[in-house]
Amino acid sequence: MLSEDIEERSWCIETDVIMTWLPCMTCRRRLTQLRTSGSRRRRRLPWMMVTATLVFLIFSYTGVFETNRTKIKYVPRQHRPEISAIHHHHPNYSLTPEELLRELGSTLAASSVPSVSTEPDWADVQKARVDLMKEHCKRHIFSARKPTYGIGSILDKNRKLLYCPVEKVASTFMRRFMYSLVHNPHSKTVTYPFHVPIDVALKYKYDTTKTIHFRDYNKALNTKFLFVREPYSRLFSAFVDKLLVPNDVYWKWWAVPAVSKFRKSASAKSKRCGNDVTFSEFVKHVISRLHRTDPHVKSVKALCAPCEMNYTVIGHSETFSRDFRYLVDVLNISFEGNSSFQNLSIDVAKDAIMDSTNGAFSHYKKLQTCLTKFEMGQRLWTKMQIRGVISNDLEFPLSEQEMDEATVRSFMLLLDKAYAQSDNGTQLREQKTRALSEAFETVPVEDIRKLTEIYSLDFEMFGYDKYPDFIASILERDKTAQ
Ligand SMILES: *[C@@H]1O[C@H](CO)[C@@H](O)[C@H](O)[C@H]1NC(C)=O
Ligand SMILES: *[C@@H]1O[C@H](CO)[C@@H](O)[C@H](O)[C@H]1NC(C)=O
Ligand SMILES: *[C@@H]1O[C@H](CO)[C@@H](O)[C@H](O)[C@H]1NC(C)=O
Ligand SMILES: *[C@@H]1O[C@H](CO)[C@@H](O)[C@H](O)[C@H]1NC(C)=O
Ligand SMILES: *[C@@H]1O[C@H](CO)[C@@H](O)[C@H](O)[C@H]1NC(C)=O
Ligand SMILES: *[C@@H]1O[C@H](CO)[C@@H](O)[C@H](O)[C@H]1NC(C)=O
Predict the structure, then answer these.
(1) Which has the closest alpha carbon to 455: 325, 291, 290?
(2) What per-residue confidence (pLDDT) applies to 210?
(3) Range 356-395 burial, b when 16+ CB lie within 10 A, else e
(4) Structure confidence at residue 445 (pLDDT)
(5) Poorest-confidence range of 17-21, 242-246, 362-366, 449-453?
(6) Cβ of 426 less than 6 Å from ligand 6
(7) Which residue minimizes the CA distance to atom 12 of ligand 1?
(8) Which residues, judged by CB distance below 6 Å to any ligand atom, belong to the binding site of ligand 2?
(9) 139 alpha carbon to ligand 6 midpoint, in Å?
(10) Which of 117, 271, 414, 445 has the fewest CB atoms below 10 angstroms from its CB?
């Protein structure tokens, strides 16, 4: 089972158990789907039959991601092996995720000092974040009636630690971290999170806030942390991770309903597969429904109850390394072996390569009638470019026939080479920002305004700009157009 399926399943089971008294229909449905993954033809849900009320220009993937990009032909550098040469040598589909992990794991950055550098200034940054959150909490009246807060938060009782997972903000990594902590309860030295297999960490039954009353916990805990992310970017990331690349589960749960509901005269294939759902259609679906039901796109305010649970550490995805280092400082722990998260960004990239490739190839097996393997490879390549792992200058190097022969392992190595060649950090950051901005260019202005409203408190409480440049320029242009 794929990591995200497991993630989803564990979240659902968790929530399903806690919220039996709440209408957690989405979860039940999801669980049923996962349990009966053999029977793919399900009845259409009633809400899918709602007439599409709005008609919009439909953007194809190429429209969304390709038109504005300046294509630069990839020229192999002489001192480096040509990346297209690698895939021929490893025709092997039979590696398990653990084996894959080991495979690239051996090239994981292994620097010598597992020490933690103290950054006193970062404590000030953290204090400012906590203060900002409290400031907003004072201004808004929150109903503390419904004990929805802290649901599913993971506990390390020994260290009196709580983590509220926010999906799309390194939550898999943090679950691996929590696994590592929980399994080394009395040690100052714990396993490096990247060495904890993903599926093991996601399947593990952690102690959670559901077992003991929240109020008792809030006081008793020493460290309460969460990681947040700029809401527009979190939303786009959900799209790229779950819909751009083949995903048997989310294409059905998100893409098919979005296409059926919001695309005028969608083709039969699109309605069956959801293979060409656009970002703007996804956004409409989020606005109409998903933001209330799906943890990947729910606001942090709804997921983690920041005003009821007094968080002590607030990490930002944008400053992940420093925040994680700070957290590790606060916990006064270090990692065993030669892993130093000085090189966290390298490990993050390698991990993204492994997990994404593994995921896309496995999901593809069930979606062969929805897209070609070549398309799958191209999309995976594009995903890595959007995430800023490999350079936009590197064109997808395989021919159709070569892609047909590609394996999980050969593809991972291909991406790994491309990653090694993508050494201009400035360029990678720029292309990430550009992909985000290009995606939002396709979203109608009124939908952008609705998103700003939906995530309003997330922006305010966590110090994000509701109108970053790329959003401001879209709104500005609209004003001048009127
Ligand atoms: C593929 O890998 C498995 C396990 O690593 C090995 O047992 C098998 O012989 C390999 N097959 C080929 C064709 O290389
Ligand atoms: C949380 O912080 C607020 C002030 O910001 C305080 O009034 C409240 O008692 C705290 N709650 C707990 C459980 O510590
Ligand atoms: C951190 O742990 C070390 C032992 O590994 C201990 O000597 C030190 O006092 C601890 N620091 C804090 C702030 O708890
Ligand atoms: C750490 O690295 C050194 C040299 O690179 C090696 O000899 C040692 O076995 C490594 N230790 C672990 C725990 O991997
Ligand atoms: C990895 O981290 C070490 C410091 O721990 C640093 O010296 C080295 O340059 C880093 N490697 C890369 C490729 O950034
Ligand atoms: C890195 O990329 C930036 C922006 O694309 C460019 O201005 C800069 O010259 C590049 N640096 C190198 C060393 O290629």
Answers:
(1) 291
(2) 67
(3) bbbbbbbbbeebeebbebbbbbbbbbbbbbbbbbbbbbbe
(4) 95
(5) 17-21
(6) yes
(7) 92
(8) 134, 218-219, 310
(9) 45
(10) 117
Segment 431-450 shows an average pLDDT of 95
Mutate to test the pocket of ligand 1, among 87, 88, 90, 92 (most ligand atoms within 8 A of CB): 92
- Stretch among 341-350, 362-371, 396-405, 442-451 having the lowest mean pLDDT: 341-350
Q: Comparing 482 with 108, which gets the higher pLDDT?
A: 482
Among all ligands shown, which has an atom nearest to the Cα of 222? 2
- Are 411 and 84 contacting, i.e. CB atoms less than 8 angstroms apart? no
Atom of ligand 5 minimally distant from the CA of 109: 1
The per-residue pLDDT for 331 is 93
Query: Which pTM was predicted?
Result: 0.74
* Alpha carbon of 116 to ligand 3 centroid (Å): 12
Q: Which ligand is nearest to the CA of 332?
A: 3
The pocket around ligand 1, CB under 6 angstroms, is made up of 92, 94-95
Contact 83, 76 (CB under 8 A): yes
Ligand 5 centre distance from Cα of residue 354 (Å): 21
- Comparison of pLDDT for 366 and 344, the residue scoring more: 366
Nearest atom within ligand 3 for CA of residue 332:
1
Give the model confidence (pLDDT) of 87-134 as tens digits: 222 222 334 444 544 554 433 433 323 334 455 588 999 999 999 999
The average pLDDT across 216-236 equals 88
Measured in Å, residue 329 CA sits from the centre of ligand 3 at 10
- Note the pLDDT tens digit of each residue in 267-279: 999 999 999 999 9
Q: Which residues line ligand 4 (CB under 6 A)?
A: 337-338
Tokens representing 262 are 């919001």
Check residue 346 and give its pLDDT.
Answer: 83
The CA distance from 161 to 181, in Å, is 10
**For ligand 3, atom 8: residue with the closest CA:** 332
Measured CA to CA, the distance from residue 300 to residue 316 in angstroms comes to 12
- The C-alpha atoms of residue 305 and residue 464 are separated, in whole angstroms, by 18
